[in-house]
Task: inverse folding
């Protein structure tokens, strides 16, 4: 286990990389004994310092819940990160590309909770009961730790590589649509790049939220009413560059667009 001093130093380093729009060397190369629990401790300290600095917590993201994402990253277990209010963009946003590193887009569903969810025994049905609505969302990945050779320890420490998110489309009550069969067509500059269906997330996207609630319980935390939860990508990450326009068509759940400058 890392010392509190090491955890604080890494949290400072990652906050500096986010602020300076830079990357830091692999943590696992510098701290070879670092564990998954160490990495969640780093993330928790980074989050605490953000809140002290005035950032407002609005939700959580879940990563690496689908086979597509696990194959793309070489990491075989889910992880989670924190969403602050300043990370959330509305549909049609124009986004500065240079504020992020290694920018990629993931296609997801977001659950907005009307009731809290506390593990350790949260089920899919608990999630559906607690959810006010589900809406299309895009996750903008930003890796502040160098990419080559990353492990889940690096990724978790890096707030699960979350840069920002875009919400849009047509919100739906969780019982108004079969969420497993929500499909999406992801276009970059009018060319289709990725497709997928939401069942790719643990057979049902609500299972991602249940996993998160139960994992948070292990760290003495829970999901609160009003939080937004990104349930995990059901496509591979799509690289985007300055000048690119992204449009994702969710069929009857509408579309999301954003442009990078």
Result:
């Amino acid at each position: 286990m890392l010392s509190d001093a090491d955890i604080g130093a890494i949290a400072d380093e990652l906050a500096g990389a986010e602020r300076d729009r830079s990357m830091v060397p692999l943590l696992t190369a510098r701290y070879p004994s670092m564990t998954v629990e160490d990495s969640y401790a780093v993330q928790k300290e980074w989050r605490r310092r953000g809140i002290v600095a005035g950032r407002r917590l609005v939700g959580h993201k879940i990563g690496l819940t689908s086979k597509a994402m696990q194959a793309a990253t070489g990491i075989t277990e889910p992880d989670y990160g924190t969403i602050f209010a300043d990370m959330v963009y509305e549909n049609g946003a124009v986004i500065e590309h240079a504020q992020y590193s290694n920018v990629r887009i993931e296609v997801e569903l977001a659950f907005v909770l009307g009731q809290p969810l506390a593990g350790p025994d949260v089920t899919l049905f608990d999630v559906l009961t607690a959810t006010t609505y589900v809406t299309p969302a895009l996750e903008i990945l930003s890796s502040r730790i160098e990419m080559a050779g990353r492990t889940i320890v690096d990724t978790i420490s890096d707030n699960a590589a979350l840069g920002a998110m875009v919400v849009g489309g047509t919100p739906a009550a969780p019982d108004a649509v079969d969420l497993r069969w929500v499909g999406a067509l992801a276009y970059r500059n009018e060319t289709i790049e990725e497709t997928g269906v939401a069942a790719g997330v643990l057979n049902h996207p609500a299972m991602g939220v249940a996993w998160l609630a139960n994992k948070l319980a292990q760290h003495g935390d829970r999901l609160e009413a009003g939080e937004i939860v990104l349930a995990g990508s059901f496509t591979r990450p799509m690289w985007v560059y300055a000048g690119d326009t992204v449009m994702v068509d969710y069929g009857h759940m509408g579309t999301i667009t954003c442009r990078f400058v």
Remarks:
- Residues 26 and 32 are 10 Å apart (CA to CA).
- Helices lie at 4-20, 27-30, 36-52, 67-73, 124-130, 152-157, 205-218.
- The chain has a mean pLDDT of 94.
- The radius of gyration is 17 Å.
